[in-house]
Design brief:
This protein has 599 residues and is α+β, with helices and mostly antiparallel strands. The protein contains 13 helices and 28 strands. The strands form seven sheets. It has a 15-stranded antiparallel β-sheet that branches. Strands 26-27-28 form a three-stranded antiparallel β-sheet. Helix 4 (268-277) crosses helix 13 (574-590). The longest helix has 20 residues, at 400-419.
């Protein structure tokens, strides 16, 4: 049975993550980091590229599954003719080495279980040597070593370059499996008790979730999204990956398949806003500090994305031995967009640091100097065309969103100096820049005939990013040009109420063949815009529709295909969950009783 993108659930240890399918198979896992080569890559190929299935013998998908409370501990239940069994999957926050733990528990009757562990290092291309010692199955290939053990020991054997297991569980019985990775040149890490690790994992997650300050409508969805964002955080540095996967397609069978296991600067302001609003100051501070370290250096060298620790070189490579998810090739690692000129990121970084300052995060002496340096570079370059926030792989254009974010950069600098005049800076020069950018965008990026801002100067195309114009303060929400843009985007870029980034029909604006699904964060932006323009009921209806698109455990990919009724793109996607949190919070504020209405 083919597993669709939404058939997966996420487990992780804040340094890497795995995807667990409804049929009990772990089909994606990169160790020891999010961006390491996968040792289970069936998600992008087939079972021969690596997976670990554990389920009742002969069974298909589980009967039900859920996360245990407000945690990232996954429980899957199979009801079979002979009894019921549950499997609890999780990755405890690591001390030294990463572990995946799977605890099988008999609930009723007696159930025969079967397991297949097929390790394939380097994205499914390397078959390791296997041996048995001290009750462990050990796989070694190059730099990687993986140890598998069970408590109590169960029957295992080698077959077809995989490790098979067979055992039976009756009501009340438990069998725990522990898979541990470590560098092959180092000794095996100390053994961890899986049952104690489960208790600690639940306690850690529940303690973290309890810190959420949000108590408004849809709290369950907000907390689940925050847990997902936390799971996508690389704890050693505070960086947050866009997604834990690569090359999940934006169109089934298409070529729009990218590696998202890196940290995008563009996500920074929205991420900070979500974390700060919900009370996660420690995570917000860690993300801000990662941002400061990553962008240090010459402003001309600023990249749109970086590695988990701020790495700059992310060369794009195609893995031709993987057929792609449902035949969607090529499979890529690295991301060539890292070398693009995207001028909007200067505005996003400056906006992020301005938000951090005004929200009361502990000050960083060099943060203002960095903003001044970035703005100085942007002053000399904002008039140039670029590839834009959607990372167009076609000719550079004067994208309206990029210009709007140049305005944001100047605006935030002006506002900072107005509130703190003792800081160094030329406020009058920056006011002039802000005014010049504003005039040019309104003259060249606005179509008065259709009453809408366009994707780029002189273009007839629309772009969902123009929905952000009122959110960043470029124009007030009640400006007729804003209302017209919201209506135009909704009318021309939406499908069944959900919004595409831009049109992929006709001329290849982005330099790529094929199409893509509706973009979920853009749909959240539309809900925000409807709210800001006074259409709160319509905004709430769209938000409810978006909530219904989550899978059974509350996760969202990057895109959605409203025709096929399925999720598309890398999964789970941080940007989608950030959009969910921010829209939920904004709608809650919009519907709060005003003082004159109280009582």
């Amino acid at each position: 049975m083919t597993q669709r993108i939404e058939d997966y659930a996420l487990i992780g240890d804040l340094q890497s993550a795995a995807l667990v399918a409804r049929n009990g198979s772990i089909d994606w896992l990169c160790l020891p980091r999010f961006d390491s080569p996968a040792c289970f890559a069936a998600l992008l190929g087939d079972e021969e590229n690596g997976h670990w299935r554990l389920a009742p013998a002969g069974a298909g998908n589980c009967t039900s599954r859920r996360y245990l409370g407000e945690s990232l501990v996954l429980e899957s239940v199979w009801e079979t003719p002979t009894g019921t069994v549950r499997i609890t999957d999780f990755m405890p926050q690591r001390d030294t080495a990463p572990d995946i733990m799977r605890i099988v528990e008999g609930v009723s009757g007696e159930v025969a279980m079967a397991g297949t562990l097929r390790l394939r290092f380097d994205y499914g291309s390397v078959v390791p040597w296997m041996r048995r010692t001290d009750g462990h199955r050990i796989a070694v290939a190059g730099p990687d070593s993986v140890w598998l053990r069970s408590e109590p020991q169960v029957k295992t054997w080698g077959q077809d370059f995989s490790t098979r297991s067979s055992f039976t569980v009756a009501a009340g019985e438990k069998v725990a499996f522990v898979l541990t990775w470590h560098p092959s040149h180092e000794p095996r890490p100390e053994l961890i008790d899986p049952h104690e690790a489960l208790e600690n994992a639940l306690a850690d997650w529940h303690e973290w979730s309890a810190r959420c300050r949000y108590e408004g409508p849809h709290r369950e969805a907000v907390v689940r999204s925050l847990i997902t964002l936390k799971a996508l955080t690389f704890a050693p540095t505070g960086g947050i990956v866009a997604a834990p996967t690569t090359s999940l397609p934006e169109e089934i069978g298409g070529v729009r398949n990218w590696d998202y296991r890196f940290c995008w600067l563009r996500d920074s302001t929205l991420t900070l806003g979500a974390l700060l609003a919900c009370g996660y100051l420690e995570e917000a501070s860690a993300w801000r500090d990662w941002l400061l370290r990553a962008v240090a250096g010459s402003p001309s060298d600023l990249q749109i994305m970086y590695g988990l620790s701020g790495e700059r070189r992310l060369p794009e490579t195609e893995l031709d031995w993987l057929r792609g998810h449902e035949g969607s090739a090529p499979v890529r690692t690295g991301n060539g967009a890292v070398d693009q000129l995207q001028l909007d990121v200067y505005g996003e970084v400056i906006d992020s640091l301005h938000l951090a300052r005004t929200s009361g995060l502990s000050g960083k002496p060099h943060a203002w100097r960095l903003q001044v340096s970035l703005l100085g570079f942007l002053e000399s370059r904002w008039r140039e065309p670029d590839e834009g926030l959607w990372e167009i792989r076609g000719p550079r254009r004067h994208f309206v969103h990029s210009k709007v974010m140049a305005w944001v950069a100047a605006d935030r600098a002006v506002r900072t100096l107005e509130s703190e005049p003792t800081l160094h800076g030329d406020v009058e020069r920056w006011r002039r820049m802000r005014d010049e950018v504003h005039r040019e965008v309104c003259e060249k990026g606005y179509d008065p005939v259709r009453n809408t801002f366009t994707q780029s100067y002189g273009s007839q195309e629309l772009d969902a990013a123009t929905l952000l114009i009122p959110q960043v303060g470029f124009l007030p929400p009640d400006d007729p040009r804003v209302v017209g843009t919201v209506d135009a985007v909704r009318n021309e870029l939406s499908h069944d109420g959900l919004v595409r980034r831009y049109s992929t029909e006709g001329a290849a604006i982005d330099g790529l063949p094929g199409g893509e699904g509706t973009f979920l964060v853009c749909s959240f932006w539309l809900a925000d815009s409807l709210r800001m323009t006074g259409r709160v009921e319509e905004a709430e209806a769209l938000f409810g529709k978006l909530l219904d698109l989550r899978n059974d455990v509350g996760l969202l990919a990057e895109e959605y295909d409203p025709v096929a009724g399925r999720q598309l793109g890398n999964f789970p996607q941080a940007f989608s969950h950030i959009g969910l949190v921010n829209t939920a919070l904004a709608l809650a504020r919009a519907t709060e009783p005003q003082p004159e209405d109280a009582g």
